[in-house]
Amino acid sequence: MTANTIWLGIGFLGQLLFTSRFLVQWIASERARRSIVPLAFWWFSLAGGATLLAYAIWRRDPVFAVGQASGLVIYTRNLMLIGRGACQGKPA
Predict the structure, then answer these.
(1) Confidence check: pLDDT of 92 > 60
(2) Over the range 69-85, which residues count as b (16 or more CB within 10 Å of their CB) and which as e?
(3) What is the CA radius of gyration of the chain?
(4) Is the pLDDT score of 11 beyond 80?
(5) Smallest Cα–Cα separation from 72: which of 48, 38, 49, 43?
(6) Ranges for the Lipid A biosynthesis N-terminal domain (predicted)?
(7) Which of 9, 12, 21, 78 has most Cβ atoms within 10 angstroms of its Cβ?
């Protein structure tokens, strides 16, 4: 197995994680019968974004890397806000 094959696998894994967040959000919204963003959405966003960032860096694609890095800031911040709300007794 070559490094190129391994990195293609990492890229596809990142894309799968990133896409999973939409499935999680859709299923949660259907169950609640209203639009909601569950905690798992942000965790899948973070995991998928980090994996895709690693792939973008390996590909030496600055546009892709900057886009994924920017998203990681947003996903991390949302998880921090959710965590802060949970610590204050507010619903997550």
Answers:
(1) no
(2) eebeeebeebeeebeee
(3) 15
(4) yes
(5) 49
(6) 10-81
(7) 21
Separation between Cα atoms, residue 73 and residue 35, nearest integer Å: 23
Token code pair at residue 50: 């980090």
- Spacing of C-alpha 80 from chain mean position: 14
Helical (H) or strand (E) element with 83? helix 62-87
pLDDT beyond 90 at 51? yes
Instruction: Name, in order, each residue with C-beta under 8 angstroms of 35's C-beta and a sequence gap of 6 or more.
Output: 29
Question: How far, in whole angstroms, is CA 50 from its chain's centroid?
Answer: 7
DSSP string, 27-44: HHHHHHTS----HHHHHH
Could you report how far apart the first and last alpha carbons of the chain are, in Å?
43
